[in-house]
Amino acid sequence: MAGGNGAATNGFASGGRQVTFLEAIRQAMFEEMERDPTVLLMGEDVGVYGGAFKTSEGLLERFGWERVIDTPISESAIIGAACGMSYVGLRPICEMQFIDFIVCAFNQITNFLAKGHYLWNAPAPIVIRGPSGGGVHGGPFHSANPEMYFVHTPGLKVIYPSTPYDAKGLLKAAVRDNNPVLFFEHKFLYRRIKGEVPAEDYTVPIGKSVVRREGRHLTILSYAAMMHASLEAADALAKEGIEAEVIDLRTLLPLDEESILSSVKKTNKCLVVHEDTKTGGIAGEIAALLCEKAFSDLDGPLVRVTALDTPVPYAPTLEEYFLPNAKKVFAAAKELARY
Amino acid sequence: MGAAMKKSMPRELTRQQYLDLYYYMRLNRAVEETMVKLFRQNKIVGGLYSSLGQEAISVGTCYALEKKDWIAPMIRNIGALLVKGVPPRDIFMQHMAKYDSPTKGRDGTSHFGDLDNLHIVSPISMLGDLIPVMAGVAIGGRYLGQKIVAMTWIGDGGSSTGVFHEGLNFAAAQKAAFVLILENNLWAYSTPVGRQVPLENLADRATGYGMDSYIVDGNNVVAVYKTAREAVERARAGEGPILIEAKTFRRLGHAQHDPAEYVPKEMRAYWEARDPIALYEKFLTGEKLLDAPVKKEIDERLETLLEAEREFAENSPMPPPEFAEGGVYCTGDDCHKIQARWERPIAEVTPPKSSVKAVWTVPGFGSGKGSGGVDAAIHFGDAPAVMDKPANNGRSAKAAAKPAAKTAPKKAKAAAAGASRKARR
Ligand SMILES: Cc1ncc(C[n+]2csc(CCOP(=O)(O)OP(=O)(O)O)c2C)c(N)n1
Ligand SMILES: [Mg+2]
User: Which domain holds residue B269?
Assistant: First the structure.
């Protein structure tokens, strides 16, 4: 964790060391606000309290009331106001206290924000971010993975990182992007994942996946928390002589088609793992992509390991059953490798 | 304090202002009449809406703004577009979905804006959406030190949307320099206002937001203008958002297709006798501000102008089919260079000047006391402080099922977090 509580940095790590996923996000916002006075943060309890998950701790103290705005519980108003702010040249970051509440602003996002550039040539450099995902017993209203509602919306970009390095670099890229970017932060990772972030300023390109592990027998595509389950499964698969190539999609819209296709053309098999529910998940889109552009390269069916097509259940036993995990990935991958 | 008919400012209008109001109302009506002709010739794409009988509202309110101010007109606010400086040809082309129109055929009707020059935000169909957007323009403008006022319009029907509430409440909480004109034309499509809202005066809605409001005769352009001018001045001075209810009547159907047979005859007759342009002509004539030669001059001016504008619009091509593609994303600085116009020292909003004591009223709460990061109580505080293995730490089913077991938080604060997790609902 970021040590010290030095006045100069308000307790922020200066980078160049191991930080949590959560801290990486906090650093990204801090540094972008430091770098660019048109960057503001808006959301519920983001000010004095520092956010329900403390991702904005210390920001109010450093940047003041005008730049760190505690809003009423009005998701539509938050997104609407951000649109207006962007029209006068500002770059607001909007926090959804839980990403589940983003759908309360669905109309503002899909009808107003996303269509602006196409219709009115109006860029909207807005980031909408918040804690998403399950595995923490949040239940049906605090565990959502709503990414696909928005992947279906031209005009948006959708990011879902899995490491502190990517979270920081992609969030900075999102703030600098002239388009509305939805940035999902898997809350299971907030404090469970630690990683190195450079001391110097950097960004990670939006729309580019990354190969987390090279392999030749099959391709595993995943993102966010399931990235870690996929890597754990790949470790176990390796012990059985199956070398999985594991790709972290990182950005879901636009999808890095090129990297997906080149990996699948090499391994000839593809497994998609996501925590989102199955029907309408990104795996279906990837299946269509492979059918269109790599049909003759496939030596097996596209396999999906996903959550069940139900709301996220509350009780730990139910949620565990609902969610994909390393064991389920391992089993599915093994079967696909043998196909 | 609720709706109160405020006494208008004593200051009167100049002759030019009186005549401007007249000219823009006439222009508003003439533009719409031209479009009705185009509609009958099948040259309008889609539906055509009318603001017949409501021109005094669009014109009188927008005329109260300064050039730098921002508007977001709704579908019955062609008059506001004209006052802001939009040429009629843009309105014609937009309704005909022409390639030279502001949206190049990608949208129609009056769904267009001009962010860079005229400071117009485009409406979308979803009623109420513009309210938080314009609150954001006002808040953003204030942040940059611009002293602008943002204005938009809403119908009696649109005032029942959720986003109307969210937007006004947020604007009021932020004391945004925002003026909302509520055009109560007594009908939302076929539903009379009394069946939508259990209020005599829709201005009363403002009370719930701690906002001040006015009620004005929407068919009296001078009253509308004076009321709007006062509201705009107060909003600009930092008094917070203001709502103006303009009482009026929708003279035609919801759109061209709708004969509005549901409107009682007496109601229509009452309002037809109160046509805002006819009333104003009578006033101007009585005040010796308008006579037959001046009126004739305006008639001719309008005719020449609209003839040329219509012709230009009709000669514009339809967009090439492939223009449907592309343009969804800003591709970077060569597509748009986003720049804020600062009218205050940037140093005021950057550290160290921007730094504050981050406390509410409980001494010591906030002020960086909360976290140090790992120790802070957070939602779902059963998350272990930090996992030992930095990379590859997959979520095993076991860990997900019993996350607190192995990594039980030791510190008092973290324990409290666990407890608050249980208590939070
Ligand atoms: C959120 C939303 N729901 C439904 C509609 C369809 N619709 C368009 S205009 C209208 C009536 C609007 O009435 P009012 O707000 O009083 O405006 P007026 O037409 O009288 O100017 C309706 C129902 C819409 N545009 N937006
Ligand atoms: Mg109405």
Answer: 3-339
User: Does the pLDDT at position B362 exceed 70?
Assistant: no
Q: How many domains does chain B divide into?
A: 1
DSSP string, A246-291: EEE--EEES--HHHHHHHHHHH--EEEEEEEESTTSHHHHHHHHHH
In a domain, A225, yes or no: yes
In this structure, is residue B392 part of a structural domain?
no
Question: In this complex, which of A87, A117, A316 lies closest to B328 when CB atoms are compared?
Answer: A117
CB B280 within 8 A of CB B53: no
Point out the residue among B133, B351, B392 whose CB comes nearest to the CB of A63.
B351
- Asked if residue B374 is part of any domain, the answer here is no
Residues of the domain holding A35 = 6-197
pLDDT digit string (tens) for B278-316? 999 999 999 999 999 999 999 999 999 999 999 999 999
Is the same domain home to A225 and A330? yes
**pLDDT for the residue B381:** 55
Tokens of A269: 């098999």
B185 lines ligand 1 (CB under 6 A): yes
Which residues, at least 6 apart from B57, have a Cβ–Cβ distance to it below 8 Å? B79, B153, B181, B183, B218, B224, B246, B248
Q: Could you give the number of structural domains in chain A?
A: 2
A259 and A158 within one domain: no
CA-CA distance, B153 to B72, in Å (whole number)?
A: 7
Sequential DSSP letters for A290-305: HHHHSGGG-SS--EEE
**How large is the C-alpha radius of gyration of chain B?**
27
Are A185 and A151 within one domain? yes
Among the listed residues B219, B185, B252, the one whose alpha carbon sits nearest the alpha carbon of residue B21: B219
Can you give the CATH number for the domain in which A117 is found?
3.40.50.970
Using CA coordinates, name the residue in chain B closest to A134.
B400
| Most A-contacting residue of B367, B395, B422 (CB-CB within 10 A), to test interface | B395
Say if residue A225 is in the same domain as residue A99: no
Q: Tokens for B122, please give them.
A: 């485009």
Residue A39 burial (10 A CB sphere; 0-12, 13-18, 19+)? buried
Domain annotation covers residue A205: no
Which residue's entry shows tokens 């004005």?
A: B216
Specify the CATH number for the domain of residue A225.
Answer: 3.40.50.920
Q: What is the pLDDT of residues B193-227, one digit of tens each?
A: 999 999 999 999 999 999 999 999 999 999 999 99
Q: Which residues contact A77 (CB under 8 A, 6 or more apart)?
A: A71, B132, B135, B163, B166, B167, B169, B170
Tell me the residue type at B263.
V
- CA gap A78, A69 in Å, rounded: 10
List A304's β-bridge partners, or say none: A272
A116 and A261 housed in the same domain: no
The CATH number for B129's domain is 3.40.50.970
Complex prediction ipTM: 0.94
pTM, whole model, 2 decimals?
0.91
Same structural domain, A57 and A128: yes
Measured between beta carbons, the chain A residues lying within 8 angstroms of B406 are none
Residues A142 and A270 in one domain: no
Which residue has tokens 């719409």? B32
Q: List, edge to edge, every strand of the sheet that includes A181-186.
A: A68-70, A39-43, A91-95, A127-132, A181-186, A157-159, A251-253
